[in-house]
Design a protein that fits this description.
4 domains; DNA polymerase, domain 1; DNA damage; transferase; five-stranded mixed β-sheet; alpha/beta; DNA binding; binds 2'-deoxyguanosine-5'-triphosphate; 16 strands; Beta Polymerase, domain 2; sodium; single chain; binds zinc ion; binds calcium ion; globular
């Protein structure tokens, strides 16, 4: 092991000791030893062999022995054990500018944060701002650092990708040679994360060069990775890549179908074409031995010629959509116009940034008839969870606002913590004062699968629980779901007529749509919940709506399509059914 590596390990030991909150002198001794070795003129191995390590200032017996072990064996059990004793994400967090060991220790201890993804989420929820030694400036700096780091990761959250795609689409549309233009790929399918933007344009052959040139000259382009006659690729300043493909107008429907994917859907579709003695590719749909494609004016035409109903892009994942399209059994997917209200809205009563009235008025502006306020319960002390006393205050305020804002309705909800044993942190007589109750897991993420599953199922069986919040706790690109058997959870939800949340926050999108498809088949109801912590957060419902569609949901199984009256009786019926 060379000197550089040894220096690195000694420094890391120092940082680990700091994160663990050990005696500061101990950490400092390691930093000091690292410095001494770094500037050492002599050969370190010789120093070890001659037993002269202790000549280095500040290096005592114990430290000398550890360095010796490192030099001689290339390993140090003490270091390995130390490293294994803290979550790995904490060390990664140190790479974020502004995050020193002390700060890492603070967020770990106070907020149970163990990954960069969780840290990012906590910044968005203003959780760091109020921690000792932090503040708004620090929080902003950390968030900026995380965003910079993300530029070099592989996949992106939906909002960034959608925004970048919309901008570049507008930019390309402004060119007179673009006849048709569409975003294809995973973005059009509303996958939960996106690798790159696939942009498709129809133009005349003689205009291709000009369009490629226009594309690579876009002001947001950071690097050009490919520039050809019919395609070009760039990396945008945000780190997101964008592929452009140019086709003739007649090929556009086929190319759009092809580049929308998914690859699995396309493979299945090509298979089907072959059975019908047709060849399907990005250029057309060709009968056997034919040079000319069957003309199609739209994607619907392409599907029609294959004997299929039009398959909405969100469903093109090879999850049974082709069979359903053949039988005319595709669901009538929920649409924006079906949504009458939103649940799971936080306010300044807990960790939200706006008042109940502000949230309500924004929801009215968005055209909704009601919102369900769901602040945190008392176990969520880090989020200023509500004491029984403050619940009463909040309910009085809601009643006053309801008189003022009529016919708009504010529902009294709560996001109650599911404690590790599956009980809730309010008594039944408190829970009864709400119009509805969402139960969520916010702590002890590390339970074994069986214990976690029973924890959640137990909460779901509680007669006063109406919905399960963010069922797996995942943070997209940030934190894995906790170990939970979702099949069992869905079974319990189906049996007791409980609603599963589709958390619409683009960092969560939890329930995952793959589970969502199962839930829809089982007749389980879902709610598209923005989990809004600010006025703008209300708009997140759009992402949740996309996931509800991607999960094959029709309006009738999505709670947000209910009127207030229907909702109230539904919630009552849920409780009485138990
Ligand atoms: P992403 O970019 O990873 O978020 O997901 P996609 O689906 O956008 O994947 P991408 O960008 O690699 O390709 C866009 C579409 O092009 C893909 O959904 C289907 C089509 N495609 C690309 N390569 C192939 C392929 O090798 N086979 C088939 N069947 N389709 C392909
Ligand atoms: Ca793509
Ligand atoms: Zn929550």
């Amino acid at each position: 092991m060379d000197k550089k590596e040894i220096v690195k390990i000694l420094e890391e030991i120092g940082r680990l000791l700091e994160i663990k909150g050990e005696n500061p002198f101990k950490a400092r001794a390691y930093y000091n030893a690292a410095r001494r070795i770094e500037v050492l003129q002599e050969d370190l191995t010789r120093l070890v062999e001659e037993g002269r390590l202790k000549e280095l200032k500040g290096v005592g017996d114990a430290l000398a022995q550890k360095i010796e072990t490192l030099v001689k064996t290339g390993r140090l059990p003490y270091y390995e054990e130390l490293k294994a004793s803290v979550p790995q994400g904490l060390l990664e967090m140190l790479k974020i500018p502004g995050m020193g060991p002390k700060k890492v220790k603070t967020v770990y201890e106070k907020l149970e944060i163990t990954t960069i993804g969780e840290l990012e989420y906590a910044c968005h929820e203003n959780r760091l701002r109020d921690l000792p030694g932090f503040g708004l400036k620090t929080q902003q700096k950390i968030l900026k650092g995380i965003e910079l780091r993300k530029k070099y990761t592989e996949r992106f959250h939906l909002p960034v990708a959608l925004e970048e795609a919309a901008k570049i689409k507008r930019y390309m549309e402004a060119h007179p040679a673009a006849q048709k233009i569409e975003i294809a790929g995973s973005l059009r399918r509303r996958k939960e994360t996106i690798k790159d933007i696939d942009l498709l344009i129809a133009c005349r052959q003689q205009d291709r060069e000009a369009l490629v040139k226009h594309f690579v000259s876009y002001s947001e382009v950071d690097a050009i990775t490919n520039q050809g006659h019919t395609k070009a690729s760039v990396v945008l300043k945000s780190g997101l890549a964008c592929d452009l493909r140019l086709v003739e107008e007649g090929q556009f429907p086929f190319a759009l179908q092809y580049f929308t994917g998914s690859a699995a859907h396309n493979t299945a579709l090509r298979h089907r074409a072959r059975v019908q003695k047709l060849t399907l590719n990005e250029y057309g749909l060709f009968p056997e031995n034919a040079e000319q494609s069957i003309p199609c004016a739209s994607e619907s035409d392409v599907y029609r010629h294959l004997g299929l109903a039009f398959i909405p892009p969100e469903l093109r994942e090879d999850f049974g959509e082709i069979e359903a399209a053949e039988k005319g059994a595709l669901p009538q997917l929920i649409e924006k116009k079906d949504l009458k209200g939103l649940f799971h809205v936080h306010t300044t009563y807990s960790d939200g940034a706006s008042s109940i009235e502000e949230m309500a008025r924004r929801a009215m502006e968005l055209g909704f008839d009601y919102i369900g306020i769901c602040d945190h319960s008392k176990a969520a002390y880090y989020a200023n969870g509500l004491s029984e006393e403050r619940i009463k205050m909040q309910h009085q305020e809601i009643e006053r606002l309801n008189e003022m804002l009529d016919p708009f309705v504010i529902l009294k909800g709560i996001e109650v913590d599911i404690l590790p044993d599956g009980t809730l942190d309010y008594s039944d007589d408190v829970l009864e004062t709400f119009d509805f109750v969402i139960a969520s897991v916010h702590s002890s993420f590390n339970l074994e699968e069986e214990a976690m599953t029973e924890r959640i199922c137990r909460a779901l069986r509680h007669p006063l629980v109406n919905m399960l919040g963010h069922p797996t706790g995942r943070l997209l690109l940030g934190r894995e779901p906790y170990a939970v058997n979702m099949d069992k959870v869905l079974e319990v939800a189906a049996r007791f007529n409980k609603v599963i949340e589709i958390n619409a926050n683009p960092y969560r999108l939890d329930l995952d749509w793959r589970q969502g498809i199962k839930a829809a088949k089982m007749g389980i109801k879902v709610a598209v919940n923005p989990d809004a912590h600010s006025l703008d957060g209300l708009n997140d419902f759009e992402y949740g709506l996309a996931i509800a569609r991607k999960s094959w949901f029709t309006a009738s199984e999505v709670l947000n399509s209910y009127s207030v009256e229907k909702l109230k009786s539904f919630f009552k019926a849920q409780q009485n059914a138990m």
